[in-house]
Design brief:
The structure is a homodimer. Chain A is mainly alpha-helical. In chain A, strands 1-3-2 form a three-stranded antiparallel β-sheet. In chain A, helix 3 (about 45-50) packs across helix 4, helix 5 (about 85-110) runs antiparallel to helix 10 and helix 6 (about 115-130) runs antiparallel to helix 7. Chain A has helices at about 5-15, 20-35, 45-50, 55-70, 85-110, 115-130, 135-150, 155-175, 190-200, 205-220, 230-235; strands at about 40-45, 70-75, 80. The first copy, chain A, has two domains: about 1-80, Winged helix-like DNA-binding domain superfamily/Winged helix DNA-binding domain (Arc Repressor Mutant, subunit A); about 85-220, Four Helix Bundle (Hemerythrin (Met), subunit A), CATH 1.20.120. The longest helix of chain A is centred in the middle third of the chain and has 22 residues, at about 85-110. Chain A has eleven helices and three strands, in the order H-H-E-H-H-E-E-H-H-H-H-H-H-H. The radius of gyration of chain A is 19 Å and the shape is globular. The interface of A and B includes residues 65, 92 and 162 of A. Chain A binds a DNA duplex through helix 4.
Chain lengths: ~240, ~240
DNA sequence: TCCACTTCACGTGTATACAACTGTCGAGGT
DNA sequence: ACCTCGACAGTTGTATACACGTGAAGTGGA
């Protein structure tokens, strides 16, 4: 747990009133997403308690919830750690999200209120602006909000909440496996294109948009060299 | 919380050693599935603690986990209750499961070890026997195990664990909305048919099997009359 | 008769104390 | 130099005490 993060959290908390487990969940989730808490970071209960000014009871509840969201790993008698999905799980998460978000998009197409479509357009536009301004955190924020909006308005709320979970998980692995030197994972035009088909009511086109979007996104990731066979080889050859 | 259930739990626990939160989760889940704990049942922390011989700390953790599994409802400052999904959520759960289990079946087809196929056949056969013997609890047990086996061996483990969740949730609503007087929700031949296509490797046929199976299952449920409009009518007409 | 208010039992929210476990570092023997 | 074992510090597991919130029954008045 970096101390710079501690200070930021303190600042954010100090103003508000009391802290609940939900606040801790949000803060930690956000910190993981923003890579302030890199995968593998230790999250001892007492330390978190001190940072947030609450006792272990509250922290424990928050950690349990974070574990059920697949954000942290909680094993018996061991410190909770920020989860670090391997490349296989990353691929599986993407294809699961492809299935679910594709279906949600197809179901949603043509059934969205104008109000929501405008909100989507707003997010897409702001994301573009943030990208042009090189403000990556803000860009991510709007991109996430875009997809969350879709999940929230899914006619099938069960699929919607599954999608919410998958959006979080893919965001984490994107942060983890983003190619070095790549400033942003912005894909110009993808979101507006999806909006167009959602508005016109072409469900299958919307599903295809999602598939294309996620495939492109996965392409920006560095998932290649870390195959299990290669790993084994490099270990046996005596690296390090 | 019925007291008959308490006695059963006591019996099951007394023999074993210490109880962990996982044990409580399993027991409660099972009791809900078997309709020993009808929807809406109150689950006070102290009472559960007494039943299982542990303190509230352990019970709280178990309840939090059960809430994340959608088995119980946990609202601030109120007793946890066994969840009672409405008919809309029931339909949505079924169609979500249709999407996910269909995909898992398609992915799995032709890629299963012989060992697993034999296990599946075994479960299907035992389910049939239990049905013929009119032993509904055992039948449900094998039916659940059948689908869980599929979920466990999904090549995509993310989808697999999502399926595990959906199997549980559909089982709960089946117990809830099963047509009165219907002894069993057994569908002769569905499982063997699926196995055939899983073995032959015909993914699309397997997907269709799942869809057909779930549609039939949903047809055995009493989801019609309880529409919100009808409910309102029956209330206004003054029936007790 | 009905409504608003008070009171109280019940149950959860939070903090804290102590027991039990895990990994690590160092001493001692081989 | 290496391996083994034991003690210790750090952390989680569990139980318990007290504070606080909620809903229901009872009470008084219009």
């Amino acid at each position: 747990m970096s101390s710079t993060w501690q200070r930021e959290v303190m600042a954010e908390i100090g103003a508000g009133g009391r802290v609940s487990d939900g606040d801790i969940v949000r803060q930690v989730r956000r910190a993981v997403l923003m890579q302030r808490l890199p995968p593998g970071s230790r999250l001892p209960e007492v330390t978190l308690g001190e940072v947030f000014g609450v006792s272990r009871s509250v922290v424990r509840k928050a950690l349990t919830r974070l574990a059920s969201e697949h954000v942290v790993d909680q094993r018996p008698n061991q410190v909770a750690r920020v989860r670090a999905p391997d490349v296989d799980e990353t691929r599986e998460t993407f294809s699961a999200r492809n299935l679910v978000e594709g279906e949600v998009a197809a179901l949603t197409a043509g059934r969205l209120e104008d109000r929501v479509l405008v909100q989507l357009e707003d997010r897409a536009e702001r994301e573009r602006e943030a990208f042009l301004a090189n403000d990556e955190p803000t860009r991510i924020e709007h991109s996430l909000a875009f997809h969350h909006l879709l999940a929230e308005h899914s006619p099938n709320r069960v699929l919607g909440s599954m999608l919410t979970d998958l959006i979080l998980r893919t965001s984490i692995v994107i942060a983890l496996y983003k190619r070095q030197g790549l400033g942003s994972c912005y894909l110009e035009g993808d979101h507006p294109c999806l909006i167009k088909h959602l508005r016109s009511g072409d469900g299958e086109a919307a599903r295809a948009d999602i598939e294309q979007h996620l495939t492109s996104l996965q392409g920006l990731l560095d998932l290649g060299p870390r195959d299990s066979s290669i790993d084994l080889k490099s270990i046996l050859s005596g690296g390090k």
